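Continuing from the previous page of notes. For each protein in this section, the sequence appears first, followed by its structure tokens. Read the first protein now.
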Amino acid sequence: MQRPCKEETDSMRCTSCKEECVTLYAGACKRCSEEASETKEELKREVEILKAKVAFLTLWSPNGHRDPGPGFTDVVLVADDGPNGGPSMPVPAHRTILASQSPVFKAMLEDEMKESRNCTIKISDVSYDAVRAFVGYLYAEACLDEQMVCELLVSAEKYQVEYLKAYCEKFLVSKLNWDNSIIYYAFAHLHNAKLLLEAAVSLIVDNLDELRNHQEYSELVEKDPRLVVELYEACLAKQKKNAAAKDTSAK
């Protein structure tokens, strides 16, 4: 049997992985062709997200008011109260951005839920300023103060925006001190903020002799004694760990 010439053999190789295959799709094998198609779709989604971000940013003037412009958003978020305690105001956003950043928003907007039909998402557990900062952070990192970060962490936990939650935790850890340690300990416990919780416990352990004199300690005992028990257990565990580490280093 006559063997195929070199040119014929090379023509049946995938231009990407260089493997021989029976059928080529525009010079690539089926696997490489499918991977390229998936990459193309992923890039399209990223372009859509970037376009939405640009459109969003052009709708807002530096003083925080919406400007008329060629683009427009397709969903709004509404808090219970408006700016400075006034009437509620909608915070516009893009479905593409919300769905890409939060699996909770993605489920709400893709399914036949009321939010998807009405193009309105009501957020009742944080202020208008926090909602606006929350949406703003989904597009670009915002300038935040300590109170705002606490509210943002609540929203990040609720809507599973993990990178925002991590950012908020790191911010609060940087603001952690003895005076706010118990407040942040209780807050971190409530919202499953492990990084902040560990930092608060570590600080309290280092100042355990002063715990009973802390201005927030008595209030915590009255409000949630279970947290006090867990705090002492965490302190005891950390002390044992530190003691074991010292013994090991001494040997």
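Done with the first. The second protein uses the same format. Note its length before scrolling.
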Amino acid sequence: MSFNIRLAENKDISSLTELMHDYIVGFYQNPWPGTPEIHKLIEQLLEKQNGIQFIVEKEQQLIGFATLYFTISTMKAARITLMNDFFVLEPYRDTEVEEELFLTCRTYTQEQGFAHMFWITAPQNKRAQHFFAKMDAVQGNWMNYSIV
């Protein structure tokens, strides 16, 4: 299977917006925050100051993306990456596309000198949990909370 993983660019904004819609509304069934808001987010990530987005491209079509945000861990006293988004279209799950996208995020984290990469997934997302275990990830002991 021929595909390319690279950092998102300005030319990807429209296609990446569609893919993010599939992720937010289709996969997670959350409300769409709005196209202008998503464009603003992508444009901020293109600056590579607070985070980055990797995209997976196959035959000039985007089939996956991952978002890494840069933050700091007090426990590590070091910079870390938060893999906030990790998504590939259904036909490419459990394939080398998914594995290579994950490995690209992990390699970037290591090569850029971040202490570690962390992420969360929904408790019911057993497929993702199985995938992360296969990629040698260790489930943490912390509980996550949020305020809406």
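What the second structure shows: The chain has one domain: 4-134. The helical segments are 13-27, 35-46, 96-111, 126-134. We return to this in next week's lecture.
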